[in-house]
Amino acid sequence: MKPVIAIRPEPGCTATVAAGEALGLTMVGHPLWEIGGCDWSPPHAGAIDALLIGSANALRFAGPDLARFIAKPVHAVGETTASEARAMGFALGSVGQGGLQQIIDALPRESARLLRLAGAERVPLTIPTHLAVETRVVYEAVPRPVPPGLADRLRTGAVVLLHSAAAAQHFATECDRLALPRERIAIAALGPRIAAAAGAGWGACATAAQPRDPALLSLAREMCH
């Protein structure tokens, strides 16, 4: 069985490794990103009806200014983000299962002013005319080079989990820099946009049925045999 390699930042990397091991996969965690907060200017809380959060990192790294919006409900991209919001004392407006666009499309057709707290690399959204969305970048992911130990594993064959388009592009660039054989590496991507960002030439490249970790790990289990 090929090893399955998670390269997402912490604490997500450790969580993905644990979930994969629970499925019986040979998991290896090598975070190729380090998350850090960004300076940002919050809008007036009275001009905002709710928060739109696409990653738990937006809550973890928003800093003390986040407290200004504690009375606003949070529309969370998934259960991990929702759990982080609950732990911080926020009420939940909705919890998605298929990305932020799904949440946006399901909101009532009435005027709402949303504050999107996001990372520097984020998914573009189509905003309906009845909604107004302000975006603030509150964190960024800084890429790291592939270390020698990971490079050695990749040369012998592995399934690599990709959680974002930026991760896909960085990983592909690192493989080329180190002359790693793409044909020995299988890519399991969280979504089609991520798979496309990885480029061509891999031994296999497939997309999870849903943009959620359980679906991605299920795909990896199929690919590692």
Structure summarized in a few sentences:
The protein is an alpha/beta fold and 225 residues long. Helix content is 32%, strand content 25%.
Number of DSSP E strands = 11
Strand content: 25-35%
Task: Name the CATH class of the largest domain.
Answer: Alpha Beta
Residue windows where pLDDT falls under 50 for at least 5 positions: none
Average pLDDT confidence is 94
Please tell me the CATH architecture of the largest domain by its name: 3-Layer(aba) Sandwich
Instruction: Please tell me the total number of domains.
Output: 2
| Morphology | elongated
How are strands sequenced across the largest beta sheet? 3-8-7-4-5-6
Distance between the termini: 5 Å
Structural class by secondary-structure content? alpha/beta
Tell me about the largest β-sheet: 6 strands, mixed
Helix content: 25-40%
Could you spell the SSE succession in H and E letters? EHEEEHEHEHEEHEHEHEH
**Helix count?**
8
| CATH-defined topology of the largest domain | Rossmann fold
Q: Measured on Cα atoms, how large is the radius of gyration? A: 18 Å
What secondary-structure arrangement, pairings included, does this model have?
Blueprint: E1 4-6, H1 12-22, E2 27-29, E3 33-37, E4 50-53, H2 56-60, E5 74-76, H3 79-87, E6 92-95, H4 100-106, E7 112-119, E8 131-143, H5 148-155, E9 158-162, H6 165-177, E10 185-189, H7 192-198, E11 204-207, H8 213-223
Parallel strand pairs: 1-2, 1-9, 4-5, 4-7, 5-6, 7-8, 9-10, 10-11
Antiparallel strand pairs: 3-8
Helix pairs in contact: 6-7
